[in-house]
Each structure stands twice: as C-alpha cells, then as structure tokens.
Design brief:
Helix content: under 10%
Shape: globular
Number of domains: 1
CATH architecture: Sandwich
Structural class: mainly beta
C-alpha cells in the first residue's frame, strides 16, 4: 500500500480518508492485542514493555507507542498522556540504556509517570509506530519485544512495577 506514484489524487484521498497508505520505508505499524502469553490486554492487570539496553525501535525518524481502548479511541486520563514517543520529552531511560513502558490503570509512581500509558478498566490495544524505520526493522531482524504481565492491577497511586 502506498506505492501510487504520481497519482496524487488517489494518494491524497487515501491519506485524508484512511490515514494510511505509507510505504514500509516510511512507516511501520505494530499492533498488539495480547501480552507475551497470548492473553488479551485488560485493565485488570499491570504490564511492562521492556526494551533491553539500546534496543528501542530502530528508526531514522522517531517512534511512538500509543494505547487505544477496545473501540480504537484514546483513553481519558489525568496526565492527558496517550503515547510514549522518542521525540516529545518522554520517555525516561534506565541507567543501563534500557527502557520500561508501564501500561496499567494506576500510576506506577511519580518517578515513572513519564513512561506510563494509563489503561482503561476493560480491554485495550497498543500500537508501536516507527517512522523512517531502519533496515533491521524492514528486513525483520528487529521485532518489538513482547509485553510482559507483571501483576494484577492495584488501586493505589503509589503502586510500582518492575520488569522481570
């Protein structure tokens, strides 16, 4: 999809109507509906997307991880934070160069909120976008890590999680 040459009318119509049509060399989209064990995401659990040291999505441009509810909408939350991106001031990396993105209903703690995607009570999905992906993503030698479940949801705002 997206290889329409100079048919600018078709390209503009697809972009306006569907927001799609990029070449893989321009953007890759990785949808995730289940955790590492194949169980659908739910706000009843806490999750971590862990990128090992210096293994965040390989891009020449930027990447983002966005959370959507089961209907494909942003989830209202107190931070108005709907995505973690490589270009917007978040995320905060660990000292070893690794990165943890916390996906859960309750705050993982004030020190981790820059890496928090607030989840709804029910089901949801995640979308990792890579803009101007590097060759390792295009040829399949890099794939996103699986999202790990780290425990049941908590109701306190001081809950903490860690990647295993």
């Amino acid at each position: 999809m997206g290889a329409y040459g100079t048919n600018y009318t078709l390209r503009a119509g697809l972009a306006a109507g569907y927001g799609a049509g990029n070449l893989a060399e321009d953007a890759l989209y990785w949808w995730s509906f289940t955790n590492a064990t194949g169980v659908p995401y739910t706000g009843e659990s806490n999750y971590v997307l862990h990128f090992a040291g210096n293994s965040t999505p390989p891009v020449h441009g930027f990447w983002s991880v966005t959370l959507y509810d089961s209907e494909g909408h942003y989830v209202p939350n107190p931070l108005n934070q709907f995505a973690i991106t490589s270009h917007s001031g978040n995320p905060r990396y660990n000292t070893d160069g690794s990165l943890d993105i916390y996906v859960q209903k309750a705050s993982p703690g004030a020190d981790k909120e820059s890496n928090w995607l607030p989840a709804p009570s029910g089901g949801f999905m995640l979308l990792l976008r890579q803009y101007w992906p590097q060759e390792s993503a295009l040829n399949g030698s890099w794939v996103p890590p699986a999202v790990q479940i780290v425990g049941p949801a908590t109701t306190t705002t001081n809950a903490t999680t860690s990647a295993a």
